Structures are given as structure tokens and as C-alpha cells.
Amino acid sequence: MPNIGMDLNRYILEEERKYPSATGSLSIALMAIETATKIIASHVRMAGLAEIFGKAMKTNIQGEEVQKLDEFANNVLIRILSDSGHFYALASEELDEVIFPEKGTGGKYIVAFDPLDGSSNIEVNVSIGTIFSIYRKNKGTAEDFLQGGDKQIAAGYVIYGSSSVFAYTTGTGLNAFTLDPSVGLFLLSHKDMKIPESGKIYSVNESNSKGWDKRIRDYFDTLKDEGYTARFSGTMVADVHRTLLKGGVFAYPADAKSKKGKLRLLYEVLPMSMIVEQAGGMSTEGKGDLLQAKPEEIHSRTPVFMGSRKEIVQLMNTQFMSK
Ligand code: AHM
Ligand code: MG
């Protein structure tokens, strides 16, 4: 059993050793994501300063043009994951089309990511994050990204908050690693994470409530009557991270404006659903298990409710009773 404080690289390698037939490809793929997110974490810390230098000089100290942080995160992930040679294809929230890296033609895996989730929070020093989702290469076309959430091989997120935390699952539970910036290592801090059976927090952008289905309004009204409090940061990674630790529900329902919801299935909702379910929670679009959902295209959206079992079952019952 790994001990608290174990370095993420060693953890990944020890996990691989449990499967004698493993080739090491997934381990190297995960380590590439780890490296990219460490670089992003260090730039997030410097973001305010880059902005000042950027405004003053338009170029940074190295003479490079200062990039916006979300573009930077996207470019770092694309470069490092392409160079790893273990990814046959990449899909990003920031790109219209799938990329097939030259070095990845022998790669067994494909990866979808949201390079910097919570883009509205970048300028205001509120937590932001990276989300990733790994599938096996299938036919070798862009359609491989539409296999469905239950086909994910691994999923994870990194929150850049008061500390940076890397949480991931390969389908055998959820573990999280906190970055020690003095040595540049993610160290095991949350072993075999389990979401509480229920909580006292709901997390939703309530300004959309007038456009919600009445059943959804009834559900949140009931939670208020039961004494729940509200927290919503505008960064899904941060809101789901808190929900995993404290319990309760995170939601982005469909509304009159966004009839299919706002959040994207492939690189936001499906990986976070796998993570929450691996921690013993549940996720639904309102009726069924979200992990059964298949995106129609890489940027498809979905309504989402995820969190503790009690709150998600309660939501499903609210829907059922009012039909
Ligand atoms: P982004 O990927 O452009 O940052 O959008 C996704 C974010 C989620 O992190 C968050 O839950 C949601 O959008 C907030 O949306 P809104 O500002 O409509 O409440
Ligand atoms: Mg996002």
C-alpha cells in the first residue's frame, strides 16, 4: 500500500507493476500529463506578473511574446503530450479539430483535455484547473473520442488553488497528490478518496434558475429547506474538488438559453463523472448514469448533476415524483 507522501511518478510505476502484462505506455502517458501540469502550475503562480510585463513590453524577459494563460496551457499540453509518443490523437476544448501528432503514430491511447477550466477566473485569482480523459485508440479516427464515458481508461484533474493538487483514477479508486513547489513533486496527500454519503452544500449558478425546468427549481428549493448552503466558484474543477471532500452536489442544469446545458461531455463532464463515481459518488444528466453517455461530437454539451449519493438519488426521485 502506498504511503502518504509518495511521489506521483513512483506511484504510477508501482501501479503499473501490479499488471505484469502492462507495457508501461499508460504510465509514460500519465507522466507526460504530470509534467505539463507542473509547468502550467508554475506559470499560474506567475500569471499576474506576466500580465504586468506583458502590458508594459508585450514580450517577456526571454523576448517571447506573452501568451494568455489559457493559450499557454493548451500549447504546453499539446507539445508535451504530442512529444511523449504515446498519444495517437489529442482533443482540446481550445481546438475545433482533433490533432494526430506525428510522433504518436504508434501510440495506443488518445487524450481529451480542458487545458484551463474556469477561464473567467484567470484574471481574478480564483482557482482554475486542468481536466483530462484517456481512451484507448480504436479505429484511429476522430470518432474514437465518441466511445462513451464508460470506456475511459483514466481520468483526472489538476486544481491550481491555494495549493496545486493532481487527482486521477485508472478505474481502481481515486488518489490525489499535492504539489510541493520547493522540490517540484506531486506527493500523495489524499489516499483512496471517498466522497461523503451526503453533504450540506449545493453548487450551481442560481442566476440561471428562472430558465430551469420547474422540477430542478423544486429540487434546489428542497435542499434550501433542508438547510443546505450555496458555493459556486465558476470553476467546475474547484467546485467538484470541494464536493468530493465535503459532499453535496455540483450541477449545471439545462436552461432556457442553453437547452443542452453548458458543460462539455468529452473533456469536462465525463472525466469528472468517472472521478466522482470512483470516489463512491454518482453523476447524472437527470435520469441515467452519465458515464453511459456518448458525445455526438467532440464539443457536445450536457446538463450535469454530480456528487454524493444521497443528493443525486434525491434529484432522480424529484424528477420521478413530479412526472
Ligand atoms: P470554461 O471551460 O470556458 O472555463 O467554462 C466552463 C466553466 C466551468 O468550470 C464552470 O462550472 C462553468 O463554466 C461556469 O459557467 P457560468 O459562468 O455560466 O456559471
Ligand atoms: Mg472548462
Automatic annotation (TrEMBL):
Substrate binds at residues 117-120, 205, 262. Binds 2 magnesium ions per subunit. Pathway: Carbohydrate biosynthesis; Calvin cycle. Mg(2+) 2 binds at residues 114, 117, 268. Its cofactor is Mg(2+). It catalyses: beta-D-fructose 1,6-bisphosphate + H2O = beta-D-fructose 6-phosphate + phosphate. Mg(2+) 1 binds at residues 93, 114, 116. PROSITE patterns: FBPASE. GO terms for molecular function: fructose 1,6-bisphosphate 1-phosphatase activity. Residues 195-316 form the Fructose-1-6-bisphosphatase class 1 C-terminal domain. Residues 8-191 form the Fructose-1-6-bisphosphatase class I N-terminal domain. It is found in: Cytoplasm. Signal peptide: none annotated. Keywords: Carbohydrate metabolism, Cytoplasm, Hydrolase, Magnesium, Metal-binding. The keyword Transmembrane does not apply. Its EC number is 3.1.3.11. Belongs to the FBPase class 1 family. Homotetramer. PANTHER family: FRUCTOSE-1,6-BISPHOSPHATASE-RELATED (PTHR11556), SEDOHEPTULOSE-1,7-BISPHOSPHATASE, CHLOROPLASTIC (PTHR11556:SF35). This is Fructose-1,6-bisphosphatase class 1. The gene is fbp.
